[in-house]
Amino acid sequence: MPEQQKSVTGTSLFERYTLSQAYDEMFTAEGDIRPAYSELARLLCSISPAELQQRQRYADLTFLNQGITFTVYGNDAGVERVFPYDLLPRIIAADEWQHIERGLHQRIVALNLFLHDVYHNENILRDGIIPRHLVYSCRHYRREMRGLTVPRGVYTAIVGTDLVRLPDGQFVVLEDNLRVPSGVSYMLTNRAVMKRALPRLFGAYGVRPIDHYGQALLATLRALAPAHRPEPTIVLLTPGVFNSAYFEHTFLARQMGIELVEGRDLLVHNNIVYMRTTKGLQRVDVIYRRIDDDFLDPMIFRPDSVLGVPGLFNAYRAGTVVLANAIGTGVADDKAIYAYVPDIIRYYLGEEPILPNVTTYLCDRPDECAYVLEHLGDLVVKAVGESGGYDMLIGPHSTREEQAQFAERIRAQPRNYIAQPTLQLSQAPCFIDGVIEPRHVDLRPFVLFDGERTTIVPGGLTRVALRRGSLVVNSSQGGGSKDTWVLY
User: Fold this and answer.
1) Is there a single domain that holds both residue 70 and residue 177?
2) Is 221 within a domain?
3) DSSP for 370-406?
4) Is residue 215 included in any domain, yes or no?
5) Does some domain include residue 153?
6) Model confidence over 450-477: pLDDT tens digits?
7) Distance, CA of 177 to CA of 158 (rounded, Å)
8) Is there a domain that residue 217 lies in?
């Protein structure tokens, strides 16, 4: 065993650290330290548990004082919670990141081509690559978007793609988030806190910066503005203070230097959107919306919505205002459509997927549905239109009663469910209760696309399943996050 490895695992910090069948981000299967983690290992050899605990408390206090929170719906104990943060960074080597970047670029280009096609010529449906009924039955498919041309053909300009690393070290795509992807504010604040909590460690590494995300997002939104508006007014539309991602909405608006507005702050006159200001009405050209389709315009979608703007869709259809992301993009992140993304890439780009999908069983197919029902105890079952870890069954961690309930749901609405093998997500070292233990992680990089350029800040949000043995990384289900370092 290498001397450095002996000294690290010989400290009291690692007394509860165990390797498993999962890929370990810091250690090889033989127990050697991976090169990217060598400086972190040196720090952990030289620092006491008490000092590390002090720095963790500093980080937690910083999050608390800055109001870095998220909301848990349906929690009687209270709405707001401080976002759980783990002090130790997740480190990704340069060559691994280059592979991820190429795969994400390929994916966002293909998905935008798919969205344009299904709302226009429907070639991919006519050629039988994707079943027509699967698209039409998607609850996020918007018939109102048929024939409507969006600027530069960009339906989804902001994407958060969830990646996991398998035991063989390969990154695969778990799901795409194309409607209103969240979490980028936590990526940015994690970095700011890390620089202050462990400055010597950060300085010892060549970590690629991510601070430019806000300006990159602003540049993307500007590029999508109507052509006749060279100095566009851009706003961020939020549902309001009670939304789970409200901290992120305020954070990003400040980062970009744009107005944060609610639906009541906007009005539509003669198919032009205006913002109410103390100086009178001001025309709005681009809306970075963080409101789901259903609530955007009560005249077109849900009539009971008080979050949106009456007449907004008519202005959108007239081309006087741009919405990012476009209405109807959710058809491409439906978990049943997700199963076809490799075929979508081959169909539009003539290329093999760089980042593969996870094996997915569609309960809409009778033979695959029968297999899922017979193996509920081994699979992860998900509702196709849900996110945040809701309406999901993790077979190996479920009871027979829970499996029986899901079986009833699947039989009642087979189109609404997919299933995947229970994956061994990679594990990374985390500072838990005064010692370092492995916890399962995933990675959500954030991708920006303006029709010509793809911008991916090097890193992303590493989410952590903080409960021992858990595979659920969602903050609403007890997960947390850590800073993600991509090396030069």
Assistant:
1) yes
2) no
3) HHHHHTTTTEEEEETT--TT-SEEEGGG--HHHHHHH
4) no
5) no
6) 999 999 999 999 999 998 888 888 776 6
7) 9
8) no
Residue 308 has pLDDT above 90, yes or no: yes
Which of 117, 69, 111, 140 lies closest to 355, judged by CA? 111
Tell me the two tokens of residue 159.
């994407």
Q: How far apart are CA 169 and CA 242, in angstroms?
A: 39
Is 411 strand, coil or helix?
helix
CATH code: domain of residue 231: 3.40.50.11290
Going by C-beta distance under 8 Å and a sequence separation of 6 or more, which residues neighbour residue 433?
Answer: none
Domain final position from 372, 394, 421: 421
How many independent structural domains does the chain possess? 3
> What contacts 145, CB < 8 A, 6 or more positions away?
119, 326, 327, 328
Is the same domain home to 260 and 389? no
Residue 483, judged by CB atoms within 10 A of its CB (0-12, 13-18, 19+), counts as buried
Residue 340 pLDDT > 70: yes
CATH number of the domain that residue 384 is part of:
3.30.1490.270
Residue 363 neighbours by CB under 8 Å, 6+ apart:
369, 372, 410, 414, 415, 416, 417, 418, 419
Same-domain check for residues 179 and 103 = yes
Asked if residue 393 and residue 275 are part of one domain, the reply reads no
Residue 416: domain span:
361-421
Structure pTM? 0.93
Are 412 and 435 part of one and the same domain? no
Residue 212 pLDDT > 60, yes or no?
yes
Q: Indicate if 300 and 391 belong to the same structural domain.
A: no
> Residue range 257-274: average pLDDT?
98
CB atoms within 10 A of CB 134: 20
Q: What single string gives the DSSP state of each residue in 226-243?
A: -TT-SS--EEEE---TTS
Residue 75 reports pLDDT greater than 60: no
**Same-domain check for residues 96 and 202:** yes
CA distance 226 to 236: 17
| One domain for residues 436 and 399 | no
* Other beta carbons less than 10 A from residue 56's beta carbon: 18
Mean pLDDT of 323-344: 96
- CA dist 447 and 371 (Å) reads 35
**CA triple 390-253-101, angle to 5 deg:** 65
| Structural contact between residues 173 and 161, judged by C-beta atoms closer than 8 angstroms | yes
- Number of other CB atoms surrounding residue 98 within 10 Å: 12
Dihedral sign for Cα 223, 224, 230, 234, please.
negative
Long-range contacts of 227-230, Cβ-Cβ distance < 8 Å, separation of 24 or more: 229/285
Determine the Cα–Cα distance for residues 208 and 168; give it in Å rounded to an integer: 26
